[in-house]
Amino acid sequence: MNNSIFSPYLxxxxxxxxxDLQIKETKATCHDCLCSKPERGDLPYYRADLKCCTFHPxxxxxxxxxxxxxxxxxxxxxxxxxxxxxxxxxxxxLGIFVPVKYQVAFLDREESDFxxxxxxxxxxxxxxxxxxxIWEHRGAVCTSYYCASDRGExxxxxxxxxxxxxxRCEMVLAQECMVAMGLPHESIDAQLEYINCETGTEEELxxxxxxxxxxxxxxxxxxxxxxxxxxxxNDYVKNLNDVEMNKILAPELCxxxxxxxxxxx
Length: 265
Prior knowledge:
mainly alpha; globular; three-stranded antiparallel beta sheet; two-stranded antiparallel ribbon
């Protein structure tokens, strides 16, 4: 399977569902972005120092743990995550959510702002190498985003649905982790309210940090050791065997899986 379109946690699961999927896209080249070059043709224009990374991704809990544990991840990205935890920046049991303030600003942007507004740059972007600082562990949206496809509209439709498929995988596994780590299932719905926020309270729009009271209400006994919680989530997912992974994910994804297979024909 093409290493650029799956996370290390899902490799065996995706192989079992889709086989050795090989998709080559010559127009979308993340590490050598064509969109920032004069010869880009009909591709959109992105600043070379920003690329398509003017987006803040959601990171599921087990992925956060993987980033903190990995020796391959930039130290600056780990510092970013630890700072988010210390500053109560929407670091919740399901994962690291995008601050409401950022979400509202992102939704209010002009179409041409994408790839060109520095204030929307991903916090995990590596400015020195002008590339993703968490590439191996990047989230579903970043894994599936293609500015263009060799297969035209059908190809773009596939990537859109592939992103939704990976996102649903992430959310199912994140919920499994949360319950396995001893936190109440009842708080899941409240956390999901922080996805796709179109507006926010005065407090949410004024700061990237959550109030101490709201933040603490989600964390229960883990509030003093959040990093260890994320590391535990990473261990939980890494230790799932193929049978367990299929049992957890397959029933939740069968409908979208068929859509993807039809788009591959």
